Amino acid sequence: MLTTVANFYQELYTEKLVDPEAMQLCLQSLTWALEEDEQQQLEEDWMLEELKKTLHSFKNGKIPGSDGLPKEFYLIFWDLVGLDLLELFQEHLQEGHLGAGMEWGLMTLLYKKGPRQELN
User: Fold this and answer.
1) Of 44, 62, 77, 78, whose CA is between 20 and 30 Å from 10?
2) Cα separation of 89 and 83, whole Å?
3) d(Cα 8, Cα 3) in Å, to the nearest integer?
4) Which residues of 28-67 are buried (b: 16+ CB within 10 A; e: fewer)?
5) Segments making up each domain of the chain, as ranges
6) How far apart are CA 64 and CA 77, in angstroms?
7) pLDDT over threshold 70, residue 120
8) For 12-34, what is each residue's pLDDT tens digit?
9) What are 46-103's pLDDT values in tens digits?
10) Pick from 12, 22, 82, 15: which is nearest to 47 by CA?
């Protein structure tokens, strides 16, 4: 069963080659764009309070990153970690990519109902 699950997700997340001409045609068919003020808002530096507000919006008990720490940890220790977290995100925003390890995700299959041997 583990092999079936592994094969499914490996296939699902394997990078597929895209025809550049088809991609360009698709992009040219888009008829909307962000207004200038919307573009500017996306490029503005993130503020500490905005980051904390976003953290509050996460569901309790959920883990937003691969460090295994739930949102409650960040909120309880906000005075100690808030500025560092903000600097980290601003650095990634300026560089245009995430750091090593932040581009990875962890998925866990949870049993819901029915026979455990069936992946329905």
Assistant:
1) 62
2) 10
3) 8
4) eeeeeeeeeeeeeeeeeeeeeeebbeebeeeeeeeeeeee
5) 47-56+68-96
6) 15
7) no
8) 888 888 899 999 999 999 988 88
9) 788 898 999 999 888 877 677 778 889 999 999 999 999 888 888 888 887 777 776 6
10) 82
